[in-house]
Amino acid sequence: MQNNNQNVLTNDQKDEGLKVWDGPEIDEEHDDREVAVKVEHVTMRFTLSREKVDNLKEFAIKFLKHQLVYNKFVALNDISFEVKKGDRLAILGLNGAGKSTLLKTIVGVYKPTEGQIYKTGVIAPLLELGAGFDNDYTGRENIYLYGAVLGYSREYLDGKIDEIIDFSELGHFIEVPIKNYSSGMKARLGFSIATAVDPDVLILDEVLSVGDAKFRVKSLAKVQSMFDKGITVLFVSHNIQQVKAICNKAILLEHGNMIAYGDVDEVSAIYEEKTTKPKNNEDKHHVVVPLTKKELERDKKEAEAIKKELEKEKERNEALEKAAKEQAEKAQRENSNFFK
Fold first, then answer.
1. N or C, fewer C-beta in 10 Å, the chain?
2. Domains identified in the chain, total number
3. What is the pTM (predicted TM-score) of this model?
4. How far apart are CA 47 and CA 154, in angstroms?
5. How confident is the prediction along the chain (340 residues), in pLDDT tens digits per residue?
6. Dmax over Cα atoms in the chain, in whole Å?
7. 167 within some domain
8. Between the CA of residue 25 and those of 3, 10, 28, 233, what are the distances in Å?
9. What CATH number has the domain bearing residue 279?
């Protein structure tokens, strides 16, 4: 089966300021690329108590009397798919479908009740940014703490700490305990730490809207620069235009079940149909309300700002590459003269 993705941006995708999937067309029947992530018959069940147990003593009494009653909740049900290196997979679904649970299971936050997950290379999870922070530690101290949670060594963080602080734009607040930070400041610091690595697999869960408008543009440019290196991406978003611009494949989850898997345009069409055409009166709250003129104007301005920042980021990268090349040539000339 031939992948028919076209390297053309729609007007809506252009407004998002994102580059469309521009990888080569792949004959899937003869695709011998290495698998980056493989999910094999994964089921995730949670145990939910029917009544509140306030302390250990009460729990022990109810346990001995066989009065503990639980409900089983299946968050993921027999999920199987694989992501080849270089693919960008979107995970779609309404709230409560199991998207974030699936990502946390892939990362290793949860251990699947059944099934196996196979991964290769370095994984950078941009999930709940700053979830591992200690409120009594300063921003600087939390860089090492959160970095350790993500698997970075102290030596690696020593070499990256100035870059992390500069990118977060926290300034002198980096020496202040983060209990005094706003949620936006915590998210900015978490994003800066999580993106300090050069990953093989990037996992994104609704984090392209970190901080204020200025930092959102900056964070999007950072993620885009990682995309340009051809990394594998797993992406959760409710923004279909972002999904179509970034990804080439998609899966669709519904109540923990995978109901579609394949080309991003085909799966997105199924998702849009489900969110815009309720089956009955009970599903009316899922109808997507059209944007107002004011909201469209706001999105247009933000998209223009994103485009400008992406262009600046590209120019900066080209300038750095040129400077590095010139420096290497100069060093080579000096070494040649030295040995004459």
1. C
2. 1
3. 0.65
4. 37
5. 334 333 333 344 444 444 444 444 555 555 677 888 999 999 999 887 767 777 787 777 777 877 777 778 889 999 999 999 889 999 998 888 888 899 889 988 889 999 999 988 888 787 767 667 888 999 999 999 888 877 788 898 899 999 999 988 888 999 999 989 888 888 888 888 888 877 888 888 776 666 667 777 777 788 778 877 888 989 888 778 778 878 889 999 999 999 999 999 999 889 888 877 555 554 444 444 455 667 667 766 766 666 676 677 667 767 777 777 787 777 777 776 655 5
6. 90
7. no
8. 6, 19, 9, 17
9. 3.40.50.300
Q: Residue 240's domain spans which residues?
A: 11-122+198-338
Residue 171 located in a structural domain? no
31 lies in some domain: yes
Q: Tell me, yes or no, whether 143 lies in a domain.
A: no
CA dist list (Å): 270 to 93, 143, 193, 279, 336: 10, 41, 36, 14, 63
- Tell me which residue has tokens 């580059």: 19
Instruction: Tell the residue number behind the tokens 């979107």, with chain if given.
Output: 90
The answer to whether 293 and 286 have CB atoms below 8 angstroms apart is no
CB 268 within 8 A of CB 237: no
